[in-house]
Amino acid sequence: MSIIDSFDKSKPIITPDKFYKKIDKITDICIVTFSHHVRDKVLSEYKNKEITYVATCNGHIPIYYLEELDVLFFMTMMGAANAGAILEEAAYMTGVTKFIYFGSCGILDKKYKNKYIVPTESYRDEGLSYHYAKPSDYITIKNSPLLVKLFEENNIDYISGRNWTTDGIYRETINKFNKRKEDGCVSVEMESSALQAVANSIGVEYYTFFFAGDLLGSEYDAGNLVGDAHKFSQLNSFEVAIIIAKNI
Known about the structure:
The chain has helices at 36-45, 80-94, 129-132, 144-153, 174-183, 192-202, 227-245; strands at 29-33, 48-56, 59-66, 71-75, 98-107, 116-125, 138-140, 158-166, 185-189, 205-215. Helix 2 (80-94) packs parallel to helix 6. With 248 residues, the chain is α/β, with parallel strands linked by helices.
């Protein structure tokens, strides 16, 4: 059976309630980062309280309440399968229905350098989404129009367009790059198509944006994917996430 035939509406055997207990709902918004720089900076600057955690074999992922911002906050794991499972577990435990995700992405043209990316659709070059949504090449990023509006209103430099989500960071080949660029993709990352599919399936709202990191093409440019520039971009993105949280 092909992966695109994996969507099945019958009852799942394993569900989050098998492992976790619900807690009293505190707030309806959660900001999620992929960066330990952001996690550490936020926890040092905002009064916080650990309210629960997601348990993994790699260690616990604490979920914090940031009282000043009235949001939950945690650092998730990279990759569609990991991030998707953690989203479902966090939503079950906390009752949160609005999740804001941000992180770095690759860009497919140098003209997008130093811009934020608001994905409108994501190409499903990963496996998880096919278990949560009917097969299709792209999945619509449902709340992108609202983010575009907020970026415009706050004079945040951005580009919106199609995105490419892939499990295979080392299999982003020239032929795939050319095809995705012909499709109108402006960026590439590892989670958004899956997170949107999970969000749709469990009935929560997913808001996401990226910042330009490395540059793909015939010659690879790591850009600000590493080093201090990447750290600062991650931290600045949290400030954008706060703007979104105040307007959803």
